[in-house]
Design a protein that fits this description.
alpha+beta; seven-stranded mixed β-sheet
């Protein structure tokens, strides 16, 4: 497996894997994914023989991204690395790809001396993602309620 920065030519594959992760990943268009890559502070993919197996896209604070979850962190913190989305293709789950990606996110947060911010759906529930984040030392610091869902706001210091 190869870990590398995501590029614009990866967007179709990113979109496909993101769709497999719904509703946990949040639905976006290919153009919105391109915009996220342009705003990202860190965007990594795990590849095997050129095929994308999983990815993570992280944002710095105070970009033009209009997510309510992201805005929640911006209102409370001056510095962080925000995990906007992490997803692994269905057929490659359970093989350590998500862990590999998060190990690099955490290493980057240490280099930058900032916490990692993320959220996980609690309505509809996403217990697998919650266990995954707890395993990496994330702690709940709040909840945000939307019309059709609620999310647990997490921070790893």
């Amino acid at each position: 497996m190869e870990l590398r920065e995501l590029a614009h030519h990866d967007v179709a594959s990113i979109w496909s894997i993101n769709e497999q992760g719904l509703p946990g990943t949040g639905q976006v268009s290919e153009q919105e994914l391109t915009n996220l890559l342009n705003l990202s502070a860190l965007s990594l993919g795990v590849f095997r023989e050129g095929a994308l197996l999983g990815f993570v896209i992280c944002l710095p604070p105070q970009t033009s991204y209009e997510s309510l979850n992201y805005a929640w962190f911006n209102q409370r913190f001056d510095a962080f690395l925000y995990v906007d989305r992490i997803a692994v293709a269905h057929e490659h789950r359970g093989h350590g790809i998500g862990s590999m990606l998060y190990e690099h996110v955490i290493a980057s947060s240490h280099e930058l001396a900032v916490p990692v911010a993320a959220e996980v759906n609690v309505l509809p529930p996403n217990p697998g993602s919650m266990r995954f984040h707890e395993r990496f030392g994330f702690k709940e610091i709040g909840e945000l309620h939307h019309k059709e869902k609620s999310v647990s706001m997490l921070l790893r210091t």
